Amino acid sequence: MDLAARVMSVVGRTSLSESSTSPVNNCQKIGKVMDVSDGAFIGGFIPYDECRIRSEQLVKGALETSFLDMDEQISQDKQVWRLPGGCAVISVLVFLGKLYIANAGDCRAILVSSDGTKALSRDLTPSSERKRLQELAYRNPELIGNSFSRLEYSKKLTRSDLKSRVLYRDWFMDGWAVKTVNETDLRPSLISESSRKRRLLNTIGVSRGFGDHHLLTVDERLSIKPFLSAVPEISVTNLRDMNTLSDKDVVIVASDGLWDVLSNEDAGLIVRSTLGSTDSSDSSRYTQAAQDLIAAARGQQASGNLKRWVMNSGGHASYDDITVFVIPLKYCAAPPTNFEEEDDDEMLSLE
C-alpha cells in the first residue's frame, strides 16, 4: 500500500507562503518534529523500521480490547438477567513462543522454574493503585461528593485531631507532606484501612475486574464502578530466553484466597515438591500439585476450636474461595519445528 505524507513547518507568525513542504512517499521514513522553546523548528525523519507494529503489540491490544468488550457485555446482560457482583480476572496466553499474562484484579500468576520463582503479575488493589484512584477523585470530585476525602493520612483521624498537623499524600505524591487537619479531613478516606486489606470507599478490596456495575456504597449510595477499571495490566515473557523447558517449569495462576496465606516462594516449593515426587509420565501430577496448594492454604482445624483453621506453620488458614491452575510450559510452549527466531517481529499486513 503506497502512502504519501507531507511535512509543513511554520516558525512564529511566518506566513504559510514562507513555509516549506516536502513529500515522503511509500512510508519509507516517518517525520519527527521538535518545537524548541526559542521558536526554532527542528525537523527530520526517523527510519521506518523504528515505527513497525510488531505482533506482540497486536496480541496485547487484542487482550486489552477483549477485557473491555467482556465487561461491556456483562453490563448489557445485566439489563436482562440478574447478574449480581463482579470478579477479578487473569488470563494466560502462550503464543509464538511468548507468555502473555493479562491481569485485572488481585489474582496472581507466578513462574516456577529451575531459576526460582518469578512474579508475572502484580495485585491490582486500592493500595497498589492509590495514585490512579486518587487522581480520578481529584479530576471528578462528584464521584466522592462530600462523603469521602481523597487524601491518604498517616493515621486514622478523629475530631480530637482538628487543627493538629498530620502526614498525608495525594494523587501526585510518592512521598509524604504535612498539613493542618480541618473538617473535610475527618471524612472517611477514599482508601480505608480494614483488618485484612485496604478497601475502596469502605466497600471493595480490588480496583480492577469485571462487573460490579451497580455496586454502591452502603450509606452514601455512591457508584463504585467509575473507579473499577476492566483494563488489564499485561506482562510478556519470552520463553525462548529460557535455555530449556522441563516438566517442572510451570506457571501457577490462582485467586487471592491462595495468595492471602502463601507467598510466591512457598507456592513454588510446594509445586516443585509434588512434581519431584510423582512420575513424569503421570498426566494428573499437575492437578495433584494444584490440590496440594489448596490443601496447604486451607490448613486444618485447630485442636479444641472447630471454628478455627490453621496452616502447618501455625498461621491463620484461608477462608476465601480458592481457584488454582498449575500450567506446564513444556507442553504448551513448544514452537513449531519450522519456527524462526524473528518471525513474530515481522511487519504484519492487515490488508
Automatic annotation (TrEMBL):
Identify the InterPro entries for this entry.
PP2C, PPM-type-like_dom_sf, PPM-type_phosphatase-like_dom
Q: Which organism is it from?
A: Caenorhabditis brenneri
Pfam families named in the record: PP2C
Which CDD domains does this entry report, sorted A to Z?
PP2Cc
Domain PPM-type phosphatase intervals = 15-329
Name of the featured protein: PPM-type phosphatase domain-containing protein
- Which branch of life, at top level? Eukaryota
Gene Ontology cellular-component terms for this entry are: mitochondrion
May I ask which residue range the UniProt record assigns to the signal sequence?
Answer: none
GO molecular function terms noted in the UniProt entry? [pyruvate dehydrogenase (acetyl-transferring)]-phosphatase activity
